[in-house]
């Protein structure tokens, strides 16, 4: 099969691993920089132009690795492939939903998936009210489209919270407030869902003095043993966001597990290293099996 990995760089660990596993399974694989793709619409069939050629009809499978900086353009490229009947491991709508933390949490809350107490507003005049809605400090302040722990700040006092929020309002940055889960002790759990299965999970712990648990922020990891409730949260979350492949982050609290966010392009380096599970293989094999089954069903109908 022809597989396109939409990524801004071939040397990124996750992209490289997906290429490796696709080649091992005898697929034709190519890395396409979605930021360098153009879409042509109008008379005739739509086209996706990359390096001067129309590539729309080439792939059987696309695996989007869309970063926050070009998420809207990347999702538009994915959408064009989708409308041409190409299977994607992350649907365009799911990419945009997952990229926006507020939108994700709204959907999760609607579907009765437990989340931390959350407040968001664009009214800079009611900062005190927003903080008090969470029971006062400490509170977590998050940029709505931050990644890898960037744009996540803990405010220990009302004064520091107001200062940070004032700054974000001045910058016209979209952010949200969440309750601080003290008992989590700087730990969370990353769960990788592929298809309707959980293929890997790890507990991440922040570096000493760091409340963020992201591996990119110096955290460490270990294999996580999931409860049935945690498994259910992860599988439902990816289903509701239309993401066949995704990373789900949850935090353990006195109230039970709470969903933090869903990542449409989860990094593979940390979880493969700490769990020794070949996640890249699972992604390629799932995609191959899905498309092959789809082709068989179509041929059977004909």
TrEMBL record:
Please list the residue ranges annotated as the ATP-grasp domain.
105-288
SUPFAM superfamilies (alphabetical): Glutathione synthetase ATP-binding domain-like (SSF56059)
Cofactor dependency: Mn(2+); Mg(2+)
Which InterPro entries does the annotation name? ATP-grasp, ATP-grasp_RimK-type, ATP_grasp_subdomain_1, Rimk_N, Rp_bS6_RimK/Lys_biosynth_LsyX
Record key words, sorted: ATP-binding, Ligase, Magnesium, Manganese, Metal-binding, Nucleotide-binding, Protein biosynthesis
Q: Name one Pfam family in it.
A: RimK
Q: Which GO terms describe its molecular function?
A: ATP binding; metal ion binding; ribosomal S6-glutamic acid ligase activity
Q: Does the keyword Coiled coil apply?
A: no
NCBIfam families the record matches: rimK_fam (TIGR00768)
Q: Which PANTHER family match?
A: RIBOSOMAL PROTEIN BS6--L-GLUTAMATE LIGASE (PTHR21621:SF7), RIBOSOMAL PROTEIN S6 MODIFICATION PROTEIN (PTHR21621)
**UniProt-recorded name of the protein:** RimK family alpha-L-glutamate ligase
Query: Which source organism?
Result: Aureibaculum algae
């Amino acid at each position: 099969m022809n597989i396109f990995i939409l990524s801004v760089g071939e040397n990124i660990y996750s992209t490289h691993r997906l290429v490796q596993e696709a080649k091992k399974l005898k697929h034709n694989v190519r890395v396409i920089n979605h930021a360098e793709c153009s879409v042509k619409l109008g008379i005739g069939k739509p086209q996706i132009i990359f390096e001067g050629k129309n590539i729309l009809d080439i792939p059987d499978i696309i695996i989007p690795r869309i970063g926050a900086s070009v998420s809207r353009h990347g999702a538009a490229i994915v959408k064009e492939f989708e409308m041409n009947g190409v299977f994607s491991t992350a649907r365009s709508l799911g990419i945009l939903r997952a990229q926006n933390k507020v939108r994700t949490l709204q959907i999760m809350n609607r579907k009765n998936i437990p989340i931390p107490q959350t407040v968001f507003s664009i009214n800079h005049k009611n900062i005190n009210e927003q903080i008090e809605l969470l029971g006062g400090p400490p509170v977590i302040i998050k940029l709505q489209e931050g990644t890898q722990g960037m744009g996540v700040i803990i405010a220990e006092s009302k004064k520091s919270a107001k200062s940070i929020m004032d700054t974000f309002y001045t910058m016209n940055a979209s952010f949200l407030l969440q309750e601080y889960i003290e008992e989590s002790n700087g730990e969370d759990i990353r769960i990788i869902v592929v298809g309707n299965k959980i293929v890997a999970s790890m507990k991440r712990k922040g570096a000493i003095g760091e409340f963020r648990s992201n591996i990119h922020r110096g955290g460490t990891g270990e294999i996580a043993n999931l409860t049935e409730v945690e498994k259910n949260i992860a599988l439902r979350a990816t289903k509701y966001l239309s993401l066949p492949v995704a990373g789900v982050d949850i935090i353990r609290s006195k109230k039970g597990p709470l969903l933090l966010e869903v990542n449409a392009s989860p990094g593979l380096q940390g979880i493969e290293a700490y769990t020794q599970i070949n996640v890249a293989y699972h992604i390629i094999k799932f995609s191959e099996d899905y498309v092959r089954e789809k082709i068989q069903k179509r041929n059977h109908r004909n």
